[in-house]
Structures are given as structure tokens and as C-alpha cells.
Amino acid sequence: MKKLILFAVLLCNAGAVLADNTMADLFARKTKLVFLGLDFTQAKYVGAVGFTDPTAIQNQHIVSWNNLIEMEPKKFSLQKAFSLADDQYVSRVEDMVKLNKSVNVAENITETEHAITEEQVKKSVSEYALSEKDGVGVVYVVESLSKTAERMSAWVTFIDLKTKKVLHTERVEGKAGGFGFRNYWAGAVYKITQEIDSRLYMKWRKAFKG
Predict the structure, then answer these.
(1) Strand partners, 160
(2) Cα–Cα dist 62/37, whole Å
(3) 44 burial class (0-12, 13-18, 19+ CB within 10 angstroms)?
(4) What is the pLDDT of residue 9?
(5) What is the pLDDT of residues 93-111, one digit of tens each?
């Protein structure tokens, strides 16, 4: 009888260890949040007049926009938005920096507005090579940088880091603004983060309440 009880306890513990992360876990602060950065692999750049140096965008600015998430946490961190303690939040953008090396900015400059689907987001995530394996990841899968509309659109996407299962994804826009090319589009990233802080967090918390 004691052996059966011990076996049952071990089985329950193993189940707890193997349990997938959920959005409810995130909002109940039972798991950590990892900000993975920005994925530009499906992005288009709308309005050629605004993207005259694709080489610099590809080799310099995409890296810089990701690095700002770690270098300027007061502006770009999601820790405050999700009311997380220091040990419940981390930003790790190096995987997205590596991933974005495969993009070709020059081939993706267009005059036509561009949209991607939820299925395209999920396919992209399924191909990620992630160094973080624990917790819930969040990545901005960038859809477009539109000089015409002066906006960046991205799918804010939550991932169970253990399985790479997409837990939730939602399209969000941020208005661009700032001095210089880098800061102009970094301003749009900041606005997306602000939108999460001011409106979307409460919406998601209500939707995924455990």
C-alpha cells in the first residue's frame, strides 16, 4: 500500500514538472515571462521613400531595435505591464537577432500594404530555435513597417517555451515617431508596448483568468 501511495505521489510530481505553460499560469504569476524580441522574417517595408538604405536596416537597425528591449527596459520592458517580480521576467533577444539574419530587406520593400495571418505566425514560431525552454515567451512578429501609414504592425505572440505552442497571438499597431530612422521605428515598438500596458493586459487577463 505504501508503495502504491509513493508511486502516486511521484506520478503527480512528474505531471507537475511536465505540465505545459498556459496564459492562465502567466496571469496567475505561476510562470515567468520571457520577452524574446522582434521577428522580422515576414515583415514588409511599405513606401520605398522611407527605406532608402536596406543594407543598414538589415545589418544595423533590426539588431538595434531588438537590443533596445534589453538596453532600455524603462521604455520597452513588459515587466510593469504584467505586474511581474524581478524573478518572473527576463528579456532575451539573441535568438531573434540570429533569426533575423536570414531576412532580405531589399526584396521586401513595397508600395502595397501587407498583412500576414495567424497561421503564418504559428508556422514562423514552429521554426524557432530557442535557447529559453522554461516559461512563457512573448515575441512581436512584425507584419509591416509602413512609412505611408507611419505605423508598425506586429502580432504580439505568446509561446509555451517548452513546446513552442502558440498560446495567443493578436495583431497590434504602434504609431512611429522620433528623431532619426532608428528612433522613428523604435517609437512604434514603444507604442505597441504602451498599448499592452494601457489596454490589452486587462483584456487578456479577463479572457485567460484561471
Answers:
(1) 136, 165
(2) 10
(3) buried
(4) 42
(5) 999 999 999 999 999 999 9
